[in-house]
């Protein structure tokens, strides 16, 4: 059987932030997709080039060429979440980067798996603003691929179940293990792969975290400080799986 060579590019959503393992490393939906795919009997080789904090432009300009160099059969792409948090976010410019990804996948015969992120706006400061921006970005992206039946879609933004606090980590911006399993289930389902039992709604006891000033002090304050100082949560970090890793079932 010919192996699937699956590479993931993106930001913290694809890196897996929020789904931390006991040893400190992050797992996340893309790792779970590789595992679930292998469990179906497919030979899977997996790479993950995503790095937290990345804006859409560095994802496309830096991670995409590195992904193409691996000669994958499948590539998953998500980005723009960090851009949408910036004051001068331009949804049309963000969506425009998809054209580069589409052209590259077409040129190299790669099957594109396109994801929208889960919607955190219900519990975020300025949540209504981010809701509007996310809705607009999703519409602009779908307009670009409306004629492309060959693109595999795994849209999580419209999933209102995913907005439940039980799917989110304490920072309210990243999903927890339950959320990452639900996203992985959607990707596998979009690929036509059987979803492991329980992944749509994992039995997982989430910690809802802090409220009020304690929440702002622990999560919002450090985020604002990084913006003011021009730093990113991904500074100094490298991709967790930069080369092909065989996945057992």
Mean pLDDT score, rounded?
A: 91
The helical percent reads 40-55%
Q: How would you sum up the global shape?
A: globular
User: What is the class in the CATH system?
Assistant: Alpha Beta
Order of helices and strands: EHHEHEHHEHEHHE
C-alpha end-to-end distance: 15 Å
Could you give me the name of the CATH homologous superfamily?
A: SGNH hydrolase
Structural class: alpha/beta
Would you identify the CATH architecture? 3-Layer(aba) Sandwich
CATH domain topology: Rossmann fold
- Uncertain segments are none
Cα-atom radius of gyration: 17 Å
Order of neighbouring strands in the sheet with most strands: 5-4-3-1-2-6
Please explain how this structure is put together.
With 249 residues, the protein is of the alpha/beta class. The chain has one domain (4-247): SGNH hydrolase (Rossmann fold, 3-Layer(aba) Sandwich). The chain is built from eight helices and six strands; from the N terminus they run E-H-H-E-H-E-H-H-E-H-E-H-H-E. The chain has helices spanning 12-15, 29-39, 56-69, 81-84, 91-108, 127-145, 177-191, 212-229, and strands spanning 4-9, 44-48, 74-77, 111-116, 152-155, 241-247. A six-stranded mixed β-sheet has the order 5-4-3-1-2-6. Strand 4, helix 6 (127-145) and strand 5 form a beta-alpha-beta unit. Helix 2 (29-39) crosses helix 7 and helix 5 packs parallel to helix 6 (127-145). The model has no long low-confidence stretch (mean pLDDT 91). It comes from Nocardioides luteus. This is Lipase.
């Amino acid at each position: 059987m010919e192996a699937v060579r699956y590479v993931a590019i993106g930001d913290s959503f694809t890196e897996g932030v929020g789904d931390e393992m006991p040893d400190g490393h992050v797992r996340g939906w893309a790792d779970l997709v590789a595992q679930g795919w292998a469990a179906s009997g497919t030979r899977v080789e997996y790479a993950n080039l995503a790095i937290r904090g990345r804006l859409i432009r560095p994802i496309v300009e830096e991670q995409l060429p590195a992904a193409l160099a691996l000669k994958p059969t499948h590539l998953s792409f998500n980005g723009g979440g960090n851009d949408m948090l910036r004051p001068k976010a331009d949804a049309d410019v963000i969506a425009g980067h998809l054209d580069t990804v589409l052209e590259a996948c077409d040129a190299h015969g790669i099957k594109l798996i396109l994801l929208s992120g889960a919607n955190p706006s219900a519990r975020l400061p300025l949540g209504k603003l981010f809701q509007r921006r996310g809705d607009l970005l999703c519409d602009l992206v779908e307009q670009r691929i409306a004629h492309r039946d060959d693109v595999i879609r795994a849209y999580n933004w419209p999933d209102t179940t995913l907005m439940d606090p039980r799917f989110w980590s304490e920072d309210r911006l990243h999903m927890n293990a339950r959320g990452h399993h639900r996203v992985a289930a959607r990707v596998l389902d979009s690929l036509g792969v059987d979803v492991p039992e329980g992944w749509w709604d994992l039995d997982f006891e989430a910690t809802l975290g802090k409220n009020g000033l304690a929440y702002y002090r622990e999560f919002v304050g450090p985020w604002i400080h990084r913006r003011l100082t021009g730093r990113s949560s991904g500074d100094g970090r490298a991709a967790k799986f930069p080369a092909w890793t065989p996945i057992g079932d």
